[in-house]
Amino acid sequence: MPAISASRIERWLDDVARSHGKSAGRLTYIFCDDDYILSTNRQFLNHDYYTDIITFDYSTARRISGDMVISLDTVRTNAAMVGESYERELHRVIVHGVLHLCGINDKGEGEREIMERHENAALAMLEQIA
Question: Does domain 6-127 have CATH number 3.40.30.10?
């Protein structure tokens, strides 16, 4: 787990939520390994594969809230595959969950590209926060 500033991340995620017309409620992150996320994926979603993040959405109309389970193993693997730093890839995955809570999807036709644009915009916002 890289050293990350919780207060900086909280401000950032609040800003991201507001930029999508939402307010941030309780956002819980569970950082784990591949075995844990595979078990979670099987137990709750009946999916038998590894993933970088699983988002459980408890949001109301304008207030986002949820639990995000993130596999640090998969984040590290993905960072190496795309030639990105581990920290930046972790930030991308952290905000990916929030973007899902804001209503942005990435499974349908053309949705992955839309999600990537929102992730990139959110990462640019993070760079502006000291």
Answer: no
Spatial separation of the C-alpha atoms in residues 76 and 90, rounded to whole Å: 8
pLDDT, average across residues 46-63: 96
Burial class (CB within 10 angstroms; exposed 0-12, middle 13-18, buried 19+) of 5: exposed
79 CB neighbour count, 10 Å cutoff? 19
Segments making up each domain of the chain, as ranges? 6-127
What span, in angstroms and rounded, lies between the C-alpha atoms of 5 and 47? Answer: 32
User: Residue 67: CB partners within 8 Å, gap ≥ 6?
Assistant: 28, 29, 30, 55, 56, 58
Q: Quote the pTM value.
A: 0.95
Coil, strand or helix: which one is 92? helix
CA neighbor of 76 nearest in space, from 107, 123, 32: 32
CA distances from 88 to 54, 82, 108, 125 (A): 18, 11, 25, 13
Can you give the pLDDT at residue 107? Answer: 87
| Residues 68/28, Cβ–Cβ less than 8 Å | yes
